[in-house]
Amino acid sequence: MTKIMIIGAGIAGLTLGLACQRAGLEVKIYEKAAALKTIGGGIILWPHGYRFLQELSIADGLQSVWMSVKSLNIISHRGSRLCSDDYAEINGLLGGEIIPIDRSLFQQLLASQLQQNTLILNKSCADIQIKNDNAGVKFADGSEDHADLIVGADGIHSAVRSILNPDAKPVYTGYCWWGGIVNHDVVPHFPVNEVQFIMGRSKVCSVWPTHGNRFMWYLPVKMPLEKFNRNDDGYLLAHELCQGWNADVQKIIAADQQGQRFHVPIMELIPERSNFSGRAVLIGDAASAFGPLLGQGANKAIEDAYVLSLLLRQRCDMPALLSRYEELRRARHHRFLELERMSAESLIHETAEALQYFEQEIPKINLVTMFQDMIPLVNAEACEEIAAI
To answer: What's the confidence (pLDDT) of residue 23?
Structure first.
């Protein structure tokens, strides 16, 4: 039986692990964390991501944390509503809903479906050895394991990538990101089925309803990396950057975040041609990463896992299989990266003049127009094309 060893128990690693188990493959998932603790914020699950989870028979339980959104409101930097657009039309074009989900709940739902003893915690990858007929991992505690394939699903700061391709390093995008999850009573006037996009100079705040009568929020800010304080657990810098701006945003930042707030510089990782080597491959953010404005990171991770799992079912020569996987994924990785960069340039404006012009123009377009370049990448037809490999 083919054995798959996955390093990292994030969305990419758990999805692949479950998909491989459903296909009858032996799987071990190693995670450096000592526990799958509550982690910051949420994700936006697009219809294509959900469709792939369904096809892999691992969407069980998602309905219990499902949160439908009715419309999107765009609020000016002065606090007035610029426009409101219903999600019905874009949902129809996509063939499903765009769903905000608590990341921790999602991760726990995936992990709960694994076979017993599949997930092994507190194991950090220290080295990898690849041979013609197998690959081995040496862990920081001195233990080892071997498999037919090693999959690096350990995120943008991947230990596996640093071994396979030490020259591939994340690059700062120019944006830092704050976020978390707050109770509805922090902003009780926000409807529980509507999204708020609040414009600001050099920043924007998006607020999404999520499971449990809560809101998940994101605040990207364009700023020099040297100004960012990684130890700002009191969110002092976020408060400073938002002074004199929107009162609702200030309330959200100041509120109890239920242990799920985060603040990170946003890095991107350009897709490389060397994301595999013999019997080792990178998926998810370990292979390619971009900003979160479009909400595509988790969906891309699911898609990576889906495509690789389909190829593994074919059980052909491993180097040839991985070469085919890389060929299938590279163009889409590049396109999502390109669209994310375009979105950041379109939404976040450094000058008052640029922001004012955007606020004048935004009422003239709708959600379909905003996402017109991405719809063909993620609709039902695109999913059918991806599945036909």
So the answer is: 93
222 near 174, Cβ under 8 Å? Answer: yes
The string of DSSP codes covering 94-163 is HTS--EEEEHHHHHHHHHHTSPTT-EE-S--EEEEEE-SS-EEEEETTS-EEEESEEEE-S-TT-HHHHH
Query: Residue 190's CB: how many other CB atoms inside 10 A?
Result: 17
How would you label 80-107 residue by residue, b for 16+ Cβ within 10 Å and e otherwise? eebbebebeebbebbbbbbbbbbbbbbb
Domain boundary among 267, 299, 328: 267
pTM above 0.90, yes or no: yes
Q: Which residue has the higher pLDDT, 18 or 256?
A: 18
The overall longest dimension of the chain from CA atoms, in Å, is: 63
pLDDT one-digit tens code per residue, 154-190: 999 999 999 999 999 999 999 999 999 999 999 999 9
Q: Report strand pairing: 144-147 vs 149-152.
A: unpaired
Distance set, CA 364 to CA 53, 76, 194, 196, 348 (Å): 35, 14, 20, 18, 18
Range of the domain at 252: 172-267
Phi, psi of 192 (to 5 degrees): -80, 5
Residue type, 3: K
Question: Token digits for 350?
Answer: 């450094």
Residue 154's CATH number? 3.50.50.60
What residue type is 143 in one-letter code?
S
Clarify whether residues 43 and 103 are in a common domain. Answer: yes
Instruction: For residues 98 and 105, give the distance between their C-alpha atoms in angstroms, rounded to a whole number.
Output: 17
CB-based burial of residue 282 (10 Å sphere; 0-12 exposed, 13-18 middle, 19+ buried)?
Answer: buried
- Does residue 252 contact residue 207 with C-beta atoms inside 8 Å? yes
Report the mean per-residue pLDDT for the chain.
93
- Do residue 118 and residue 208 come from a single domain? no
CB 265 within 8 A of CB 137: no
